[in-house]
Amino acid sequence: MSLKYTCPVCGTPLGYKGLCWKCRSGQERDTVLHWSPEQVKEKQDGLVRNIRRLADMEDPELTDFWKLLGYRDAITPRIQRAALAAEVYYPCELYYHAPEDVRDGLIHVLLSAENSSEASELMCCLAMQGDDRALETLLELEKHPRPWRKNLYVDPSIYAQCGGWTFDKEGQRMQLNFDTCYPMVKGEPGEGSPIRMGQMREDTCPHCGGRMVDILVLDGRDERLRFLGLDGILTAACCPNCVGFLDGPAFSRFTLDGGVEVFPSRTFDGTGKMDCYVRPEEYKALTENRFILGKSSVPLFYGAACEDVNTIGGFANWVQDWEYTACPHCGKPMKYLAQIQWDTLMDGTEGTLYVEFCPDCHVVSMQHQQT
Ligand SMILES: [Zn+2]
Ligand SMILES: [Zn+2]
Ligand SMILES: [Zn+2]
Description:
By secondary structure, this protein is α+β, with helices and mostly antiparallel strands. It is built from 11 helices and 15 strands. The model has no long low-confidence stretch (mean pLDDT 95). The site of one zinc ion has 8 residues, from loops.
């Protein structure tokens, strides 16, 4: 395809006339952020009226749902009650922190579920609701599996993770994500930020010979990042070329004074050798990106509603299923920290990098997913 046009906003070469997909997504988000209270109400009313269409993934309902949830945090108990009444259990994010009556309704349907796909959907919904009764119910189902359990791959405690938490054998809750979310935004050249992505390192990758990068460096002492509970610097280092070809996530360990140690890794095919596909101009774009931490926090699902936003905290937009990494040091599930959309750093690259960390061991996991 010949690239004879350019995006009028950002200048990216395009094979068609108009905005590039990232600028279009950004414009749509801007529009939603400027919706008046009346416009929000109108969208909410529309959802309640046509809630069945949401389960069938019909538009505009599905798009409106993600806009209301992701950009305006505007999924109300009224919508949740309408969904329950119409037996709509998709998307499960509908039920995030739903009120008790809705929770009890979900539990009732889950406990009477007879097939595994229904049970699976309902466990996700209950995970999103996420309170102590939800935990008790999932724990009970884990201890005393129903017949449908044998048709599912994982236990209820793994389903709980989709709501950003889980529990151990004793029913002890573990929170896996943060209830604060900040976006990365484009800053001016030289503008200060407690977060940087894609800083070039001195060392090279043992698999491909390309330069390693500190894909994420953040200073937890910045007021906005206090919610992370880090009294210093977190550094996540990986090879941008190989991180998607490893046998599992890439790991590194950080010290609060800015130090980092990269863990040995194995390539997916076991050979230990990779070609370097990241071209010099992509390295340049990656290491010269202008992303900085946004000034204000955003709704928790801000980064889950689109594919062009990098976020710290909140919920990720998992390309495949949600997947929390077990800490290679202590074995506990790690906490979800950030999502980095490769295409925002290097044009035309695919996939998402999910960054997690273990607050006890100071180990960082970097997991790549793509369609
Ligand atoms: Zn553009
Ligand atoms: Zn490499
Ligand atoms: Zn650990």
